[in-house]
């Protein structure tokens, strides 16, 4: 009855009802039985009001639009609430430094560009939690009115570039436009300044402002850094080191709920469009929001890459670009900058800690052998075996003969074999492919005592499937008549490596057409010139610009425009040889490199075939045909130059002469 009597004591406490912790302390003070304390606290937890949700804030980069649909979905479908969070979304104001809002503690989380890497280098404690867009949405928008023919025409002319857009400045520098030739003016975020000629170009999100110009019937061109080899991440979810250290559970819960919201949003775009219009903003029309959603699909590629995924190698590439452009030194370390969702706030979850624990436990057992009775030793060995068996990663013990003497539960999950199927067998007999046997045979010779060594190699599973594993190995010295042993930890990295390789491929491939992008093309171009110089061979560079392509986009929409580009690429492929190189140079511009092209007749024949092939009507998925043309400029190595820049300029000038004299033709550079 003591528990019930103390409930009466609680009822006599004056003032507001005490908290669950205060109630528990009071009951313990009054010697309340444990079952009553536990029951009381449980009831307090169950009766907790909604106000117990942890309040956090997310600073957006701009005003409400589809760009932030994932966060709206996480609120609307209760993902944040289920994670114990009440999230306030803070739309940005014009001219606001949204990253500073997070650093200064005015918001808990934020959305930033890859400039976060530069801020980290400068000492700001930013931590990237995940990537929303695999490709940056930043671009430079200019009118297609003759005054700006290419990116180089932006030199010495007023440009509106928004804050935290270092990749655009890097893009311009990479194109040979020196910083002293950049006339950057404050950004008004008003496309009328571009239309009126007040500025020559303005930084935009390719998901947003191009739609405005399309609706206004304005002929424009878009310069995206990716075509110049600067393909950065876009819209990175981030917070600060202090937030991660102080509230690791909150950070993990917020990240997971946000990514869940993004997965839902990109699978239900129309629902998100209606949600934005009904609850957040009518600033954009439904049609505008749908355009934004379609462009974000292209930039996020949720069909290929899980939302939130980021590669340390890709961040290293971004850092190398910044270094090459002189924007940061070469000693940056990414430790602490990239959030690891697998860290759970305790070192016990780190794989290397399990290896360390095993080694420590073994050392402890050896010491106990001299001071403890055999009964106590057996008990310790049982504990060690339990630790080995229940480790969260695959652990394998191998003796000097290469035979398995230890096989954890997770090893069975990874490779498929049960312990009784592998104990005493040589690993070469069942899990090492023939091409890896020599490397495994040298394992004891390659490893030094007391040092953990890492390597990657292919292994076989019970089903016969090959998997790529990351191995961490350590040799245990011989002791008490027992020979040396290797304790190995294995992690299946097959899917991760496949994803990394796919991302590397995407960096060098135009996502829409499947041909090489500008970065890969110029790498190949330089190598081809060097080879031609050694062979004293002739090369031909063709600069192909599509005529009247924008009219297709305006009349039939971007989906039809994309289809036209894909058909055009297929037709150009049909006109050139398998050894020739085709790449997308820009929006509606392509380049063709002819190796060992022989006489002039061969070159003009291919150029004429491209013009005639592209000019034929192109059937559209929605019905009807599109009619475009091709203006082709041709330059020759070594006649018109001996490097990439000279040959490109010559071909570009020849192409514009075709444009000025009626389009739909080709011209050899003078």
From TrEMBL:
Entry's Gene Ontology BP terms:
regulation of DNA-templated transcription
Which intervals hold domain PAS? Answer: 380-450
Q: Which SMART domains match?
A: GGDEF (SM00267), PAS (SM00091)
Bilayer-crossing regions: 352-371
**Keywords tagged on the record:** Membrane, Transmembrane, Transmembrane helix
Q: Domain GGDEF, which positions? A: 537-670
Q: The PAC domain covers which part of the protein?
A: 453-505
User: Matching NCBIfam families, A to Z?
Assistant: GGDEF, sensory_box
Name of the protein described by the UniProt record: Diguanylate cyclase
- Provenance organism: Aestuariirhabdus litorea
């Amino acid at each position: 009855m003591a528990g019930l009597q103390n409930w009466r004591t609680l009822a006599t406490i004056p003032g507001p009802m005490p908290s669950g912790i205060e109630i528990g302390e009071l009951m313990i003070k009054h010697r309340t039985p444990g079952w009553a304390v536990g029951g009381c606290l449980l009831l307090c937890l169950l009766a907790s009001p909604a106000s117990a949700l942890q309040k956090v804030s997310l600073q957006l980069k701009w005003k409400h639009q589809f760009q932030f649909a994932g966060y709206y979905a996480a609120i609307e479908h209760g993902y944040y609430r289920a994670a114990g969070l009440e999230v306030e979304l803070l739309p940005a104001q014009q001219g606001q430094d949204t990253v500073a809002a997070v650093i200064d503690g005015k918001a808990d989380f934020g959305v930033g560009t890859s400039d976060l890497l530069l801020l980290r280098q400068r000492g700001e404690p930013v931590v990237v939690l995940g990537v929303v867009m695999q490709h940056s949405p930043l671009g430079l928008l200019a009118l297609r009115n003759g005054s700006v023919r290419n990116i180089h025409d932006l030199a010495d002319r007023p440009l509106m570039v928004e804050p935290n857009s270092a990749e655009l400045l890097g893009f311009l520098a990479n194109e040979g436009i020196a910083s002293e030739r950049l006339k950057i003016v404050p950004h008004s975020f008003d496309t009328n300044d571009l239309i009126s000629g007040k500025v020559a170009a303005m930084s935009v999100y390719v998901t947003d402002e191009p739609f405005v110009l399309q609706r206004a019937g304005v002929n424009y061109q878009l310069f995206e850094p990716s075509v110049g080899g600067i393909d950065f991440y876009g819209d990175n979810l981030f917070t600060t080191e202090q937030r991660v250290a102080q509230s690791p559970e909150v950070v993990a819960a917020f990240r997971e709920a946000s990514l869940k919201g993004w997965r839902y949003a990109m699978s239900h775009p129309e629902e998100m469009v209606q949600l934005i219009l009904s609850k957040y903003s009518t600033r954009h029309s439904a049609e505008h929001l749908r355009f934004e959603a379609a462009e974000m699909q292209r930039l996020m590629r949720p069909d290929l890459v899980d939302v939130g995924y980021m590669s340390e190698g890709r961040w290293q590439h971004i850092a190398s670009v910044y270094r090459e452009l002189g924007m940061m030194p070469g000693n940056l370390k990414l430790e602490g900058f990239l959030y690891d969702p697998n860290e759970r706030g305790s070192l016990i979850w780190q794989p290397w800690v399990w290896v360390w624990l095993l080694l420590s436990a073994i050392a402890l057992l050896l010491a106990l052998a001299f001071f403890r009775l055999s009964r106590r030793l057996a008990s310790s060995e049982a504990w060690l075996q339990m630790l080995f068996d229940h480790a969260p990663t695959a652990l394998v013990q191998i003796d000097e003969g290469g035979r398995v003497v230890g096989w954890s539960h997770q090893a069975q999950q990874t490779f498929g074999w049960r312990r009784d199927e592998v104990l005493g067998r040589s690993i070469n007999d069942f899990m090492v492919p023939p091409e890896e046997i020599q490397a495994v045979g040298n394992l004891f010779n390659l490893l030094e005592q007391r040092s953990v060594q890492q390597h990657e190699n292919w292994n076989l599973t019970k089903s016969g499937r090959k998997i790529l594993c990351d191995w961490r190995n350590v040799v245990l010295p011989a002791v008490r008549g027992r020979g040396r042993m290797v304790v190995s930890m294995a992690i299946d990295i097959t899917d991760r490596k496949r994803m990394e390789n796919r991302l590397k491929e995407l960096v060098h491939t135009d996502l829409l057409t499947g041909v090489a992008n500008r970065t890969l093309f110029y790498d190949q171009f330089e190598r081809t010139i060097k080879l031609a110089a050694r062979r004293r061979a002739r090369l031909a560079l063709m600069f192909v610009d599509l005529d009247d392509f924008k009219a297709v986009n305006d009349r039939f929409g971007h989906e039809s425009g994309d289809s036209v580009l894909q058909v055009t690429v297929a037709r150009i492929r049909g006109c050139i040889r398998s050894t020739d190189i085709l790449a997308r140079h820009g929006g509606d511009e392509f380049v063709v490199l002819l190796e060992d092209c022989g006489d002039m007749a061969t070159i003009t024949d291919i150029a004429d075939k491209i013009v005639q092939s592209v000019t034929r009507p192109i059937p559209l998925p929605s019905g009807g045909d599109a009619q475009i043309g091709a203006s082709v400029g041709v330059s020759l190595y070594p006649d018109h130059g001996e490097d990439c820049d000279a040959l490109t300029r010559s071909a570009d000038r020849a192409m514009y002469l075709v444009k000025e004299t009626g389009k739909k033709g080709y011209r050899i550079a003078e």
